[in-house]
Amino acid sequence: MSVPSAMLDALARRLNQSRRVTVLTGAGVSAASGIPTFRGAGGLWRNFRSEDLATAAAFERDPALVWEWYAWRREAIASARPNAAHDVLATWSRRWRGCAVITQNVDDLHIRVGTLGLVRLHGSLWELSCWRGCGAPPWRNEDIPLPKLPPLCPSCGGLARPAVVWFGEALPTAAIDAAVAACECDVFLSVGTSSVVYPAAAFLNRARSRGAFTVEINPDTTPATTVVDLALSGPADEILPRVERLLEPISGT
């Protein structure tokens, strides 16, 4: 069912009056790009769930298996292209000086379209780090396929791991600090996220408690649906372009 125009108009009016806009994105933003679901129903890979593989314990037990899964994910994502939702959010990141895009996604599609002020909560599939923690900073590697599995740290020669946040690991302090600061905003949008994974799921309530107008864009009902000021049911790549067309032209351009 299409989102009523009146609801889109209401959001556009809020955005036109705002100086600080924050957007939290999840897997739903990348869905239209054809990226497979790696979690939940249908997310099995060779009879393994992501919760079985995306852990330090799994890597310590069988690094080759874990890397085989990540290599498959990288190959699946490499052919994906940013969709209309990514395009709109990149435009918004330049439209408002006080705009922040916080993402739970590790596909870097936001980066491909030049999104400014991006906060990556869970890291990137295209970056690696030293498993031993030798002190080498994470490095970028976009090779498809990787020349060696498992890959090695170029500094110490030990095993490298994907530079993503695994289950049971803390999110990067800098990313958390940036996300918390971004909750001080006029409008907070939760787009394509299930609103069940913490601490990301808490950001919307934090923004709401500080007076932000809160919005959810998601085809499915989530725990956030009944608490936001405005819930728009539908895919991000359809709704965000409709909202963008209703915004006032940027002054001076």
Please give a structural write-up.
By secondary structure, the chain is an alpha/beta fold. It has ten helices and nine strands. The chain has helices at 5-16, 27-30, 50-53, 56-61, 63-78, 84-95, 109-112, 173-182, 200-209, 236-246, and strands at residues 20-25, 98-103, 118-120, 123-130, 139-140, 160-164, 187-191, 213-217, 230-232. The strands form two sheets. It has a six-stranded parallel β-sheet with strand order 3-2-1-7-8-9, sandwiched between helices. A three-stranded antiparallel β-sheet has the order 5-4-6, covered by helices on one side. Helix 9 (200-209) links the parallel strand 7 (187-191) and strand 8 (213-217). Helix 1 packs across helix 10.
Helices and strands, with pairings:
Layout: H1 5-16, E1 20-25, H2 27-30, H3 50-53, H4 56-61, H5 63-78, H6 84-95, E2 98-103, H7 109-112, E3 118-120, E4 123-130, E5 139-140, E6 160-164, H8 173-182, E7 187-191, H9 200-209, E8 213-217, E9 230-232, H10 236-246
Parallel strand pairs: 1-2, 1-7, 2-3, 7-8, 8-9
Antiparallel strand pairs: 4-5, 4-6
As for the number of domains, it is: 2
Name the overall outline: elongated
Number of helices: 10
Radius of gyration: 19 Å
Please give a handful of descriptors for the protein shown.
SIR2/SIRT2 'Small Domain'; 10 helices; 253 residues; three-stranded antiparallel beta sheet; elongated; Rossmann fold; 2 domains; alpha/beta
Task: Please provide a brief summary of the model.
It is built from ten helices and nine strands. It is an alpha/beta fold. The two termini are 35 Å apart.
